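Problem 12. The chain below contains 572 residues. Write out its predicted structure in token notation.
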Amino acid sequence: MEALNQLIFLGGALFLVSILATTVSPRMGMPLLLVFLLIGMLVGEDGFLGIEFENVKAAYFIGNLALAVILFDGGLRTEISLFRVGLRPALSLATLGVFVTVVICGVLASWILNISILEGLLLGAIVGSTDAAAVFSVLTNQGLALKARVGAALEIESGLNDPMAVFLTLAFVELLIASHSGFSLWILGDFVWQMAVGTAIGIFGGKILVVGIQRLSLSPGLYPLLALFGGVFVFGLASVVHASGFLAVYLAGLIVGNKVSRGLYNIQRFHDGFAWLAQISLFLMFGLLVSPHELLSYGFSALLLGAVLIFIARPIAVWFSLIPFQFSWQEKTFISWVGLRGAVPIVLAMFPWMAGVENWKFFFNLAFVMVILSLIIQGWTVGPVARKLKLNVPSKSSRVQRVELGVPGEIGHEFIGYQLADDSPVLNKPLKKIRLPEKSRLLCLLRNGESHLLQDTEKFQVNDHVFFLSNPEDLEVLEKLLVGVNETERLSAREFFGDFTIRSHAKLSSLSELYQFSVPDEMKHWSIARYILSKYRQPVIGDRVRLGHVDFVVVSIKSDRLEKIGMKIHQG
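Solution.
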């Protein structure tokens, strides 16, 4: 009993320290996953507390369960509209890109470490895929609002590339054990089975979850749990039939996040906390599992392989995979750089142990050091690199508070509240002169801590708390109406998009006369939209094209059509 009490005390202390570390890490620019990993190592067998944790079977189980939760949460937050611009390049990166990375890394690992080519390819397969937990965490915690094409490609790739890495790792483990080096038809058939059945189970399971959440009458607190354990069930079902559970759970989360209207905000908020729990548990456990003193003997080799992975294999794979797609060199460079490694390589490094490979710790320790190297070098620099390459699009301000209206049979109605700042567009305006969205109603106003009945002729004041009954689709209109854009954001947007905003149908010839830049004769009668579409088949907000000394930047898109274009004029 005493040991159990000590375990509870220690577990609570570790999680508290990890949670408190999240307040310090952003100021230092340190990736949070690296913080959790280091905390685990500091209290492990070579650390201050000397905790020994060697249960690889438990670590493998917890690792897979945590990854399922993280991938489901990632799917919940991925807008399906992003698939319009990100699916095809992401699929190329998740299949061809992973394969090229594995081959390059494997061949060079064989040469650097003086091991067999099969062992080198196994090591390449273990570290060949980007990690969803790492990518989602870094992009979210650094507050990056990336161009849709880049952000979509990265997030979808990290959610889809695990099946390829798992397949290659299992294939090379099997070949290593069988002591032959030829591929057989079962390997290809196994890959097709994993992808096809994993996709089918994910889509079908996601649709069943949507029906359950929409139609079942449950306590409001049970809907997030229904979604969570539904996602875990989908992952388990796919794994039981030897399909890709990672792919299935990501697709299930994607469908739930884009099809559910009842309580989606509460489900996402719950899963955000649960995904944090999964990430902390995962990386604390890996920190405890590793033996830091054993890593020293792999340090130099791991550094060389990490450099190969970051600076050679990943960039070549990205540039090769994206040849058919219209990505600028800046976008390809950034995608190459954000090839973050995290929990997945460490979990895959346990596959040799499961198969009975004697020197499995060789693969595990090398993968562990390469993950640390990736989090330090790439994770620490994601924000500065995005800003340097001008891929961080100015984000909209959001000061909204939302609570679902829990009335049986009523779907899509929410209480939405704002605190009016001193730059709110509605200040000093009477209610009767404010054009609210048709389905939005002002319910309550709190002023100086007391409820206040606002008459039609009375004006809004600074620090008023206003609450509306509205629909989620009206959020953007309410945001602009009540919050607006503060000066810092306005200046940031002006710097990025330019000083002028014009309609996409404006003619290049008319603009060239006004702003004194040359236009080729064959383009005299072109609109700005046509000129941008000649450069990008599927333009996204933030895409930039140049003509003379003028940059045209996509500001807004409506119904897949270019709407507003920014103009940035360069002097000289």
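Discussion. The first strand starts at residue 401 and ends at 404. Students who got a different answer should revisit the alignment rule from Section 12.3.
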